[in-house]
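Case study 2.
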Amino acid sequence: MSDLPVRGFWSYVRDDDHTDKGRILELAEDLRSEFAAITAGSLELFVDRTSIEWGDDWRAKIDEAIAQAAFLIPIITPRYFTSQACRDEILAFAAQAQAAGVPDLVLPVYWIDVRELENDPSVDEVTALVADRQRQDLRIARLADRGSSVYRQAVHELAVALAERSDRLATAVVALPVLAGKPADSDEDGDEGLGLMETLGEGEVALDEITPILNKIGAEIETIGTLMEGGTAELERADARGQGFKGRVRVAAKIAAELKEPARNIAELGQEYGAMMVKIDPMVRMLIEAGKSTKDPEEQEAAQEMFEALRGMVLSSQAALDQLRELVDVVKDGARVSSTMRPVLRELNRGLQGVLDSSAVFAEWMRLIGPDDGIDAAA
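Prediction:
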């Protein structure tokens, strides 16, 4: 093992830790101790509850910790996939690892059963990402006493897995992509492969492919808004006629039937959009890095044009993302109120979530490009 500490980011939902009476934070402590015992090295875990002081800019602190961590350890529970903060963390880290050519840096800890993870993980971008990684299963250990052999064995196996991945990372030779079709340290001019300007052009084309999907989602959202407004008015009429609970159930069933098709369309479009962002994100990061490092005046100009296109895309997406967040809140409220509408609203929420996940990706692009007047990096 290296003398340098191994750094990890502990990604979890605080409500899960509260539910388990602090067991998730205890697990972090026990993992640190076991890692030191079996490696004679140190494990530094960024845990937001203990690593952020009062008054710190918590989002900037978390972004910095993600960028500096070698591993991300998500504590997988049903709540994890509904937490936007956790989704942002794992997507941002996985994209950075993928862009660097070392995708095996996410080490999920399976803490509580997640039905979607076992049945159909492809329906959600983050669920699919977790399903594609080898998980350390601590579901039984979670229910065992902290001092039990079952729990201690599980912690030991988690520490061993982390140590093995750390060793592989320390000895790995990462082959970074070469944009110009030649070695980075070569001064020779070659005709093979794409030049930076051509690659930047392809990047803009790929980004343009997202626009039609967003337009389709916007059209479906307008349809849903119209249907929900009509449903609200119908509920008010039913109440005015004194139809009571039966009247509300009837109207809810009607609204659910009307929402079924647009909800299914948004679920499919959101999944398509999320899959496209996963493919585009590493490429955009690579292009930003290359564009900022090139010394060629023409390539610098082309890079600046791409940066402006990205800024414009982020700015234009801010209002749309805010509207989506409002709609997600409405959907969640509706699902709590009516069990009849719950299945269709759950499908709708899944599609919307795939689009909302892009806000973390956009923010990271803006951070890499650098500050610019009028740009909100937290879009």
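The first strand starts at residue 6 and ends at 11.
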